[in-house]
Amino acid sequence: MSADGYAGDLTPQQAWELLEHDERALLVDVRTDGEWTTVGVPDTSGTGRPAAFVEWVDGTGRPNPAFVDELRASGLEPGDERPVVFLCRSGVRSVGAAKLATAAGLGPAYNVLDGFEGGVGPDGRRGTTGWRATGLPWRQR
């Protein structure tokens, strides 16, 4: 475990490789329903396993009080040592998700650096880094 309280950070490519090579690994997208709908979602169909979609916060920014319960409903159980890879927009909310999952005995839990869209670039827009910019599979929801 990292000093930050979760298994560590992965680049988008490292996350994809973990998902491809470990059939137990699960990608959990913790963005909001609005983000999934308007921006797109990672497409893990190539791994033979769907991603899980569990909001960390709702569209108003309120924390999801059922977050851990929803993770368990997606097939994660305390102590099962199933790798879980958390993805958000830019790699910030997913750190909180990885920490909470670890505290709940789920994982090892990883954070995807730069998330799905990356941080805001010099042009004031997102999308120059992250899952999608790296060329990893994604689709509109």
UniProtKB/TrEMBL annotation:
- UniProt cross-references to Gene3D superfamilies, sorted A to Z: Rhodanese-like domain
> One of this protein's Pfam families, by short name?
Rhodanese
| SUPFAM superfamilies xrefs | Rhodanese/Cell cycle control phosphatase (SSF52821)
Q: Where do the Rhodanese domain residues begin and end?
A: 21-125
Q: What is this protein called?
A: Rhodanese domain-containing protein
